[in-house]
Write a structure and sequence with these properties.
3 domains, globular, alpha/beta, Nucleotidyltransferase, domain 5
């Protein structure tokens, strides 16, 4: 399937597009050494003229030389601690540049070059192949596609097209990436771990409140969530934060949640905790853990070169001796000097 990536290079008032079928998953590891290495990596990719669909794009980076801006996103291994570590290191190795996360994914890069993000929006339905009449026939033709048997029972006739979004709401289990949803109603706050991507959770609209009400709530979650949503049913206000991307769902929130007001909290899980604790609690990302994971990933990804060995040593050493955030930044500065 590949891990497709786009790289956009802006220079001298114009921009060019590059494509890689494999660079999306570990995109941040190519950016870590700094602007020279990141730009060189982007320029090595295949020239392209058209942005791919956002559902196919695993990661992307805009290197804006004119404004000294790096705008990027990648899966970051679905690990909030790893992502935090990558952002902290990039903020130093790209000193003097604005290092920004693309909270709307590929759409943010498309907007940055003046194009219409609707052109890369993920399709929300797919045609059923000709001659396919039942869920069983579809499973035989497309075994990777899963249909909810509660919606499409075995033997039932399929429509001409099937919705591909939002994913069915499913309660998450400890150890898997989770969007932690908290619901405030009549002075009580309850928490629910949900497994689909955060944009799909939002896509279910206010009807999802009935789904959560049927689940057993959790007062705490043991791992750092990858995203969170706080729903205040009394005031009809909601906030969302994420360490991934929102796939252009928030502009559609007024239609999906009529009468509700939504706020984007970027990756500020602390804002979520402010609304839901102490009734519901969860840990934030760990910079030390993230640096250790990032160091191992960088070493495995890139074998060779003094710059590679240096940044790997930095990450491992910093993580092993880290006392606080300032110690991390001092260690990075010492190595660069």
């Amino acid at each position: 399937m590949g891990d497709r990536a786009h790289f956009v290079i802006k220079r001298h008032g114009s921009w060019s597009l590059r494509y890689s079928p494999w660079a999306g998953y570990d995109l941040e590891l190519e950016l870590l050494p700094g602007p020279a290495a990141g730009l060189a990596h982007a320029e090595r990719q295949r020239a392209d003229t058209t942005f791919m669909n956002e559902v196919l794009c695993t990661g992307a980076a805009l290197v804006d030389v004119d404004e000294q801006r790096l705008l990027w996103f990648s899966p970051c291994r679905a690990d909030p601690s790893y992502r935090w570590a990558a952002l902290r290191v990039l903020a130093t190795t790209w000193a003097g540049w604005r290092v920004e996360w693309a909270y709307d994914g590929l759409a943010d890069l498309v907007r940055a070059v003046g194009e219409d993000p609707a052109g890369v929006a993920a399709p929300r339905s797919m045609p059923v192949p000709p001659g396919v009449r039942t869920p069983e026939e579809l499973a035989a033709r497309m075994p990777m596609l899963w249909l909810d048997p509660a919606v499409h029972p075995p033997g039932s006739p399929l429509p001409a097209s099937l919705p591909t979004w939002p994913d069915t709401l499913r309660r998450a289990a400890p150890g898997e990436p989770v969007c932690l949803v908290t619901v405030a109603r009549a002075g009580t706050v309850r928490g629910y771990p949900v497994s689909p991507p955060v944009d799909a959770v939002i896509g279910h609209g206010p009807a999802s409140l009935d789904t959560y009400a049927a689940w057993e709530p959790v007062p705490a979650w043991p791992d750092a969530p990858t995203a969170g949503i706080h729903l205040d049913a009394d005031t009809r206000t909601a906030g969302v934060w994420t360490t991934r991307d929102l796939a252009q769902v928030l502009p559609d929130a007024p239609r999906l949640w009529p009468g509700w007001r939504w706020e984007l909290w970027q990756d500020r899980h602390t804002e979520h905790l402010r609304r839901c604790a102490p009734a519901v609690t969860f840990p934030g990302p760990s910079l030390r853990t993230g640096l250790l994971t990032l160091a191992a990933a960088f070493h495995e990804h890139r074998h060779g070169g003094p710059a590679t060995r240096g940044i790997s040593a930095l990450l491992g050493l910093t993580a092993s001796v880290m006392l606080d955030e300032r110690a991390v930044l001092r260690a990075i500065d010492d190595l660069r000097a």
